[in-house]
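--- STAGE predict ---
source: upstream dedup step, 1 unique chain passed
mode: sequence only
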Amino acid sequence: MDEAMASLTKATSSFLAKPRSESSIITRLHISLYLNLSNHFSCDIGSLLSDVIDNGMLNGLDLVILDEKEPPDCLDEEMVQQAENVNGFFTAYPSMLVCLTKLSLYNVCFRKWDIHHILFDCCKQLKHLALFHCDAGLRSVWKIDAANSMLRALELYSCFFEKLEIVCLPKLEKLHWDTWTSHYSPLSFGFVPSLRELHLLCGATRNHKGFNLSELLCGTSYIHTLTLDFQGEKLWIHPEMKQLCTAFNKLRKLSVLGIFVEFDLVWTKAFLQAAPSVEILHIQVWEHACEADSEARNITFPDRTNPFWELQLDGSKNLLLKELQLVGFRPLEQQITFIRAVLERAPNLKRVVLKEDTEPCEDCDAIGNPSYSLTGHVFPKNKCDQDAVDKKITDGIVSSAQIIFGC
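--- STAGE serialize ---
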């Protein structure tokens, strides 16, 4: 850490020491640093940044405050100490708060720190906030009520809040939450008139009880991009259809990801019924033999149960649906049946894009390897196999949609 900070201090000093005219004001400066108030590097960086801000030569600061430890190795008291370091840094160099446009924090516990005042009262220009492995104390509720905030993007990664209550964030456009610990709904919305993108990613553990997506989305009505990623585990949402219509009214792109390869896909038609304005439907099937029934997985996650939703579909069509993407495609009966059902329901569908999941796995060679396939089927790579799949999909169906096999 000391070597990294020494190099950063030298580089920053050299860069900021260059004479600048009014026409060469820095519009955005990105700096990633470690905080250790016991050495002089943090102070040197703070002084350098404060000087250039006070001189009016920097308009926007993108600051990443890192931590040496990776979760879950970081203990509670160390997270509290990290918060004290961050608070001490901003207290010593308050000019940074005025100039801050993006902030990323790692391993910070807000229990003894008034994070709301710092982020939403002091940081007048803050537009993007990313928190990694942060909390405000065990099972804490984080309530955000900031009518004057400029925050447009909020990202949470493995944060331990029991719930995030966004009472008022009028400028918020995008929310991304990857992995929560709440047993029930982790999120609620109040006044978020600008919210357009919502991404929810989590593997349901044994403690997850699930929730109604319609209740979580209550308070939103203009979302155009929605991502739900189950990361190969059971669904953490309860069966719904008509209840979602209000929240799905403006939806244009829907991504349902991380569906275990042995699960049926028919239940996803409930989303098409609730969102007639969707133009792109993105489905991703999850297949990792290394984690299918490993001992480590079975300790944390429950048995996977195939989703069963009682669907009452009417005869209406999805007239705006233009493209169906299915990543992790396997020529399985449930996938073929699902694609045919979408073709019948979407008369204006232009493309069905079938892709192999090429995302690398660090633990096995399961992706694209028939020896590791959980189903005994792999992505069709030669033209003969692709033609056979094409025929199965389109047999007896009148559709102008093009079946495209991609990588």
